[in-house]
Amino acid sequence: MEKSKFENNFVENLNKNFPRFSKYFEFRLEVFCEFNTLIYEINKCLILELDRAAITLTNHMLERLLKLALIYNEVGIGPIEIDKWSETFEEPNSNYGSIDLGNSIERCKKNGLITDKEKKHLFDTIRVLLRNGFSHADSSNILADLPDETIMYQGSLTNPHAELKEVSINQKTMPTFQAIQMGEFAKNSSYPYFDFVFNLIFKIEKRLKDKFQATE
To answer: Residue 21 and residue 32: Cα distance in Å, rounded?
Structure first.
């Protein structure tokens, strides 16, 4: 493919989508500063309509967010002397750094870092559809509501006047149709998913600040 075609596509998507997503470049984090560059990357994916890439990166950001929330909930959010960094973070990182998403969700709820409503959405919708669907390439739940049989019609390129033949296809088991359905799901889900996690970052950050300011 010629370079000019990429450039035209990028410029077209930038001009079309930047007004919608530019607000996500304007933010200030105090606790979760490591997400500055990741949010920037995801937002660029959304602007360029790289929906599956946006979802996969948002999956990474969500899992990292919940683990960091648990770590900071344990060590606090105040300044730490540089010579104590290693010993301060070693045990919490060991405790939370490798736990799975379901465990992170449960622990964050137990520690008051997320609400009941947020926990339900994270566990029942995001974990099953978006994390498993894309990071684990498991399309089963996303495609579950499709019928087991879809009627299609087979024709002939060599004999366009031939009678169409009716065939029954199960889209849920055919890789080509799985890809089409997953692409459409990604297109419809990438932005609301990112928006949810983006706002969750600031909600958890505020809960941590409220907790530790109350103990000062």
So the answer is: 21
Question: Where do runs of H (alpha helix) occur along 76-174?
Answer: 85-96, 101-110, 116-120
Q: What are phi and psi of 125, to 5 degrees?
A: -110, -60
Q: State how far Cα 13 lies from the chain centre.
A: 21
What pTM value is reported for the model?
0.86
Q: What is the pLDDT of residues 152-209, one digit of tens each?
A: 656 666 776 777 777 666 676 767 777 888 888 889 999 999 999 999 999 999 999 9
Provide the sign of the torsion angle of the four alpha carbons 200, 204, 205, 210, taken in this order: positive
pLDDT in tens, 47-73: 999 999 999 999 999 999 999 999 999
Residue 214: both structure tokens together: 């109350």
Q: What is the 3-state secondary structure (H, E, C) of the chain?
A: CCHHHHHHHHHHHHHHHHHHHHHHHCCCCCCCCCHHHHHHHHHHHHHCCCHHHHHHHHHHHHHHHHHHHHHHHHHCCCCCCHHHHHHHHHHHHHHHCCCCHHHHHHHHHHCCCCCHHHHHHHHHHHHHHHHHHHHCCCCCCCCCCCCCCEEEEECCCCCCCCCCEEEEECCCCCHHHHHHHHHHHHHHHHHHHHHHHHHHHHHHHHHHHHHHHHCC
Neighbours of 4 (CB within 10 A): 8
Nearest to 204 by CA among 2, 14, 32, 17: 32
